[in-house]
Design brief:
The complex is a heterodimer of chains A (405) and B (157).
Chain A: E1 2-4, H1 13-20, H2 22-36, E2 40-46, H3 50-65, E3 81-87, H4 96-103, E4 130-131, H5 132-144, H6 146-150, E5 160-167, E6 173-178, H7 183-190, E7 200-205, E8 211-213, H8 224-229, E9 238-243, H9 248-262, H10 268-285, H11 292-307, H12 311-316, H13 318-337, E10 373-374, E11 383-384, H14 394-398
Parallel strand pairs in A: 1-2, 1-4, 2-3, 5-9
Antiparallel strand pairs in A: 5-6, 7-8, 7-9, 10-11
Chain B: H1 7-18, H2 27-38, H3 43-53, H4 57-64, E1 78-83, H5 86-90, H6 93-104, E2 117-122, E3 134-136, E4 139-141, H7 146-155
Parallel strand pairs in B: 1-2
Antiparallel strand pairs in B: 1-3, 3-4
Helix pairs in contact in B: 2-3, 3-4
Classes of the chains: A alpha/beta (405), B alpha+beta (157).
Chain lengths: 405, 157
């Protein structure tokens, strides 16, 4: 069975492989099916991936016509048929037990494992499930041999992985990386680096299931073990590099908010725990935070991590855990000094010009709809008249030097 | 309001059912079929699907309501879904959604009075390389700008 359901923010490698190379997925699935002598194959994909659905069906049709699919394949006694199941996008559907429930036409709420799906899977039968991208690597490995594949990557993680890369960098997109590659190689090398006058602040690895790494850890290799040691996971294999206009608390709010919305609601730690975390983060970003909240958050996250039923709850808390681990100072600055250096937390906005940072370029004056900004030209720092200011944030967005708080 | 499958879709149902060892598995494909036909999934349609698959209407609704991509209220001819997830958000999707809402004169989540457009926010639609993007019915429009949205809306018949 092929898992081609993608609901993870900022990742689209399955779509790209199913659209760009559907035959590779089908061939991989057939090789896997032959290995375990399966008689039925299912490719699960989102119904709104209309191009992928069309091309997969065409690839299957071509395989049938050439006798690679169907009864007694190539004269052997091995028979299998493969169908495309058009499901719907939902983040939790990517979880293996939820995916199978979805195909069975039931509410996709993950089941406790064991029994694992290889013993008791779809319709109660043993099921071998892999991601579309994983299946697509199989034909090349069979053709060139395991030695070739093992020659790539470090000794504890062979091969390569497609990463979806985005953020405040020059070039983004999908990249297939040897696992020896470090984040710095990718950001500064292949992606053309961070924009001028700004610097790397945080690497968000693993998407909404992952966590945040500081620039000091940019030399971390992108293999499973190195990532785990750093406190994040590969997850959906996507990472985003943000410059200093990003706020770690704002990013954590996004990740937690997403997971809170996508939780299936079956187990308590995830359903209620994530809501509590979200409320606490809202408090901090709106100026109601207390210092002891940091430790409370950390304890709560660790608890959710070990008690959740499936991977969603386990991994959702990485965003807060790594945030506190590497960016504790930023949390404290939000709570004690009530300052968000990236000016992302609107509840803490003050619209004050940092005079020492202001270069008097005048960029903030024009966008201001109420004419609240004076000065700002001829070497005189800008000044915002708070009686006229309507907190529209236009001046902050216009400022190229992060001089407005 | 009553619901009936069109003739073309009626012919598709046996083919869908034949793909699975039991009837229940055809639930999502049939719900998708209904949404493609009607633009939304009504209570009557869910009852009809329940009848075909030997499931109670409540069960059909419990599965359908899990997904944000099924619409339970009547929608416009064009369903505009804006991705507001991280990559698109970073590239200004929020402003574009507001712009489109202002242009159509509705709030996000609403349908225009002439039932032509429905505007919604949606989580990742998997086109991050060309963010920001929107989906109009089944078609993806990428690398959006305000001017491009004007153009696209003007070309929709």
């Amino acid at each position: 069975m092929v898992n081609g359901d993608e609901g993870n923010p900022a990742s689209y490698m399955d779509r790209s492989v199913m659209e760009g190379s559907p035959h590779q997925v089908v061939e991989g699935l057939l090789i896997g099916a032959y290995a375990i002598q399966a008689t039925e194959g299912i490719i699960y994909t989102r119904s709104d991936y209309s191009i992928a659905v069309r091309r997969l069906n065409k690839a299957l049709q071509q395989a049938r016509e050439r006798g690679f699919l169907g009864k007694n394949i190539m004269g052997s006694d091995f028979s299998i048929d493969v169908r495309v199941h058009e499901g719907l996008e939902s983040f939790i559907n990517g979880e293996s037990t939820a995916l199978m429930l979805s195909v069975e036409g039931k509410r996709p709420m993950p089941k406790a494992q064991p029994p694992h799906s290889c013993d008791n899977g779809l319709w109660g039968r043993p099921t071998l499930l892999n991601n579309a991208e994983t299946w697509a690597t199989v034909p090349a490995i069979i053709k060139r041999g395991a030695g070739w594949y093992n020659s790539m990557g470090p000794s504890n993680a062979h091969g390569c992985k497609v990463w979806a890369i985005s953020g405040n960098i020059k070039y983004n997109g999908l990249m297939e990386l040897d696992m020896n590659t470090t984040f710095r190689d990718v950001i500064d090398g292949m992606c053309g680096g961070i924009a001028k006058k700004k610097e790397l602040k945080v690497i968000h690895a693993g998407g909404v299931t992952g966590g945040f790494l500081p620039p000091e850890l940019a030399d971390t290799k992108t293999d499973y073990e190195s990532l785990l040691n750093a406190g994040v996971i590969m997850g959906q294999a996507s990472f985003a590099a943000y410059d200093n206009s990003a706020c770690v608390i704002d990013l954590a709010k996004f990740s937690i908010g997403f997971n809170e919305g996508e939780t299936c609601g079956k187990c308590t730690p995830c359903r209620i725990g994530l809501t509590i975390i979200k409320n606490k983060l809202d408090d901090i970003s709106e100026g109601r935070g207390k210092l002891e909240d940091i430790d409370k958050l950390q304890a709560l996250c660790e608890e959710i991590n070990v008690t959740s039923l499936c991977g969603l709850g386990e991994t959702a808390v990485h965003a807060v855990l790594t945030g506190i681990k590497y960016f504790r100072k930023e949390y404290e600055r939000h709570i004690v000094e009530q300052i968000c250096d990236a000016a992302k937390c609107t509840g803490l906005y003050r619209y004050l010009v940092k005079e020492e940072e202001c270069v008097a370029c005048g960029a903030c004056i024009k966008p201001c709809p109420t004419g609240a900004i004076t000065g700002g030209t001829r070497k005189e720092a800008a000044h915002i008249d708070m009686d006229l200011c309507i907190n529209c944030n236009a001046c902050y967005q216009a400022c190229n030097f992060l001089a407005i708080l | 309001m009553s619901f009936a499958f069109t003739e073309v879709n009626e012919a598709r149902i046996p083919k869908i059912l034949a793909k699975y060892p039991n009837r229940q598995s055809a639930l999502l494909p049939l719900l998708t079929l209904v949404q493609r036909q009607e633009g939304h999934v009504s209570a009557e349609a869910m009852a009809e699907i329940g009848k075909r698959l030997e499931l109670s209407p409540a069960y059909v609704q419990s599965v359908a309501s899990f997904y944000t991509m099924y619409h339970f209220q009547p929608t416009g001819k064009y369903i505009i879904l804006f991705c507001i997830n991280i990559s698109c958000q970073l590239r200004g999707a929020d402003n574009l959604v507001e712009y489109t809402a202002g242009k159509l004169g509705i709030k996000v989540g609403e349908t225009t009075p002439d039932r032509k457009y429905t505007l919604k926010r949606e989580e990742c639609l998997a086109a991050c390389c060309n963010a920001p993007m929107m989906r109009v019915n089944d078609k993806y429009y990428e690398d959006l700008t305000k001017e491009k949205i004007d153009q696209i809306l003007a070309t929709l018949p």
